[in-house]
Specification:
Length: about 220
DNA sequence: TCACTGATCGTCT
DNA sequence: GACGATCAGTGAG
């Protein structure tokens, strides 16, 4: 009948009580702060925060893993040129490219170059920060580690679907990027590896992740 | 922890 | 009609 795990239609909010952690404050990233080159942006995004205000409430996660998909990269969805599906990948940097994959899952990218150039950064995993109960409800699992570990899981936990495709992540809206939290522990060791789940250009080291983070996806040998 | 497999459906050739 | 930037479940080591 209906697709089982695709994010459902937005429920009509009946002013649910705001969980205490939803009041955490984040500073929205300005586009000028985003590096204008894909690899640099992928590295930059590690430690940044993705914030979803998709109803019924706020959920956010610290980005701990992402992959760069470059212009002219055979593994990138933009490789064959612009289509109806991937057109948001050709928007200027800082826009959401959301696509549906394997009949079950949505994945979120951040467009990464100037308008007209197809490239992006796939957000693969996050460490849940706020709205954890909401993520649990969306995901149907309780283990915090499994809420955002993997691109499909991350999108589902944040309530991201086709409706979020094309959103400006540097503007006010239901989905946006926030600066890393300052203070002790703000600086992390970033590792690099080959990308996961692709067959073309599979040897390129374009995946970045937080070393030793339990929230990173993929086999252990890629994460040391 | 890893390897394997089925589910599921939009997109593209 | 084939493929795919995945996930969850199962079984083996």
């Amino acid at each position: 009948m209906t697709s089982p795990r695709a994010p459902g239609p937005r429920s009509r909010s009946t002013s649910p009580p705001e969980p205490p952690d939803a009041r955490a404050r984040f500073r929205r990233l300005r586009r000028a702060e985003l590096p204008s080159e894909t690899v640099a942006l992928a590295r930059f995004l590690i430690g940044c925060i993705i914030v979803s205000d998709v109803p019924p409430g706020r959920a956010s996660a610290r980005i701990v893993e992402c992959e760069a998909y470059l212009p002219g990269d055979a593994a990138a969805h933009s490789f064959r040129g612009e289509t109806a599906r991937n057109r948001t990948l050709f928007m200027r940097r800082g826009h959401a490219y959301v696509y549906f994959i394997y009949g079950n899952h949505y994945c979120l990218n951040v467009s990464s170059e100037r308008a007209g150039i197809g490239a992006g950064v796939l957000l693969r995993a996050g460490e849940p920060l706020t709205g954890i109960d909401l993520m649990r409800a969306r995901r149907g699992v309780s283990a915090e580690r499994d809420l955002c570990r993997g691109p499909g899981r991350l999108a589902q936990a944040l309530g991201i679907g086709a409706a979020e495709d094309g959103l400006d992540l540097c503007a006010a809206g239901p989905l946006w990027l926030a600066a890393p939290r300052d203070g002790p522990g703000g600086r992390v060791a970033v590792g690099a590896s080959v990308r996961i789940g692709i067959s073309k250009e599979a040897d390129r080291v374009l995946r970045y992740y937080v070393r030793d983070s339990p929230y990173v996806s993929g086999p252990k040998k890629l994460n040391s």
